[in-house]
Amino acid sequence: MATEACSTVTVNHINVFWDEGMLKHETGIGVFDTGDDPGFLDVLEKHPENSDRLRNMVSILKRGPISPFISWHPGSPALISQLLSFHTPEYINELVEADKGGGKMLCAGTFLNPGSWDAALLAAGTTLCAMKHVLDGHGKVAYALVRPPGHHAQPSQADGYCFLNNAGLAVQLALDSGVCNKVAVIDIDVHYGNGTAEGFYRSNKVLTISLHMNHGSWGPSHPHNGSIDELGEDEGYGYNLNIPLPNGTGDNGYVYAFNELVIPSIQKFGPDLIVLTIGLDSSAFDPNGRQCLTMEGYRKIGKIVHDLAKQYSDGRLVIVQEGGYHVTYSAYCLHAFLEGVLSLASLPPLPDPIAYYPEDDTFSSKVIDAIKNYQKDKLPF
């Protein structure tokens, strides 16, 4: 790949890959994510996937308590040839032509506007830079701080604010590198990581695990349900583990799901590398989700995932940014998650500015137990 801008360095830090060019993806205003102006509202809101969310994520990592433990690296745009490792030529050509034509709404809420295609190429290429950094042995933990997000983008179509599947491209790079024979993807976005799952649905080299709210299909661009019976096909049967959690699942429920389902699956699969696709829209205050994670929950998940990487994949962990639409709380939850990854005893946790949620985890625990009972005889490893 073209890696002139892909930097090398550092240990004992989180290597963050970022490029300001991704802010140039303008998603507009309207009624939530529709882009519509009904004519009777004085104040229209920004599309939830707007540049402000990333500006705050960048600033909290540059000026927050963990800033001394962050190493910053530039990204670079992906080449068209690299995109074909995951996406079909016909789909990539559709995107290129849409960009040449001045933009297009590809599906509900998903607008390719002037500047969007360049930002999407940067997001994909920056994620590849983060993966290459780890594969080349320059660091153990890399975080691709990118937008537009990618995990809904399927090999042949856009979906859910996503054009290119950044994580899927990085996973394929890892498999093609010769460094990794098996890769595990853990997706904690509040929505099902359907695009990544579809891309590896027939592969036994990639274990895709998605913890999401039980939202089902939302139309032609997202035909997948994210249900427990979507297990993969052919050689990949049993290598797609869906964990649809009931609305309102909070810190305890997510940790229970990790302990009962995610950790045992990773232990048995034995990946050479773990990719964590982080959605901060599973928080209690996100406008685009109905789950109730707080900073403390994200902090615990960060520690669990990094411990898994250290135990099973020689510490190799690549984190890829997905959703998270509360402009301030998403940044706080990101900081908390990376605190968990770092596990620094000398650093007190950043206080939670707003969260108090008296979680009742009785129902979520029952659902998780039922998922475990359903899938225990269906996983081949």
TrEMBL record:
Residues in Histone deacetylase domain copies: 47-339
GO MF annotation terms: histone deacetylase activity; hydrolase activity; metal ion binding
UniProt cofactor(s): Zn(2+)
GO process annotations (BP): epigenetic regulation of gene expression
Pfam family for this entry, one: Hist_deacetyl
Keywords: Chromatin regulator, Hydrolase, Metal-binding, Repressor, Zinc
Family statement: Belongs to the histone deacetylase family.
Name used for this protein in its record: Histone deacetylase domain-containing protein
